[in-house]
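Standup notes
- DV: blocked on the single-chain target, sequence here:
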Amino acid sequence: MDNRSIRDKIEDLKEWISEHAKIVMPIVLIICVSITVFVAVNANRRAAAEVEAQLAEMPVSTSEPIQEEEQEVPLMELEENAYPAVNALISNYYQAMAEGDVDAVVSMNEYVEEREKLRIREMSKYTEDYPELTVYTKKGPVEGSYLAYIYSKMKFTEYDELVPGLQAFYICTDESGECYINGGEDNSVVVQYIKDVSLQEDVVDLYNRVNVEYNEMVETDGELGAYLYDLSERIDVSVGEALAKAEADAAKQQEEAAAQESEAENSGGAEGNGEDEAEGEGAEAQESELAAATVKKVKATNVVNIRSSDSETADRLGKAQVGDEFTLLEERGNGWSKITFEGRDAFIKSEYLELASEEPAAGNTTAQTQQNTQTAAAQTASAETGGTVTVKTSVNVRKSASENGEKLGLVYEGEKLELVMKQADGWTRVKYNGQTAFVKSDYVE
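- DV (later): unblocked, structure below
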């Protein structure tokens, strides 16, 4: 990199920082890993207010009901590395970020957009590790929740010195006592609580200390600013190309699937001519009937995402837990298996599945097998269907009948939900925002 090139990049960087009025630490917007908000502000109150406005954009939810009324925020001192469970979560999260392990990131913060997943993977190519992490916390608005401010030092693969940063998280505790990064629904009380805490003096002081440390580093090493500016451009280009490729691949897969379906329909409707052709078709039909006469069940060997098509960039329909069983429809040569999930076709990586059982289907065709599966599922439910149910106490609405199912929202006492079916497994199937969802039967009547 020649001196002229470095000077040009530094001038571009200075102009960019000036336009953004020093609201956010430059490394935050340069690196653009926007799972949550990287924050560092000037020493004045106005900058702190702008930071808390960014924090307010974080979608949050609560595991306990909060009344929609003002909640007084107590003055609390920042605690350093005070909660082992929070420390462990943060350590694992940053390790996953450094390694580009998107599945691990999503297991700790499931509300991650596809673009952010691509940024995580791309950024990991330039990240060696986070050798220094300090977790500062204040108690959150509900039991088992925390506001965490993570001071880190990042080691780039292409830069020798450690670069400081500060990242803010809203952390909650689930029903099983595990901590997770909360990326759920908005709640005005929680948002206001975060705003108020972000303006407390010791939090602002922490922002300022990290901001000063970073700015001094950039001022004494002009090549760092130029490097980060160039890195931002590289990541933007790579993410854009990856998104375009994913869209093209998805379109190609849809075309191929449609072509295969059309070919199958045409070949299935054609009649064979001649004795030899008839014998060949008879053998193929016999094999097809034999395959259709077997119902295979597979089970998950690890926690794994369930997707709408056989691609890591496809929409996530849910998450399989260890031991969850599914009806296997097809095992593809590209490493994916097609299964039945919540009454529709879905896909899981084959490496995370193993055969659970293989039973004869008494000569059923594939369509009959699926119909029988749906009938058997319906028989596990009670006779109570139709009408509405009333929420007895605030409860999470989930995408599947599992405490680990994706959270779709939070309903409060007295709200009514359209009843689809009360199941014998302790869950009630309802309609929520136009889609099928589940709530614990204990919390509705």
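- Follow-up: The two ends are 70 Å apart (CA to CA).
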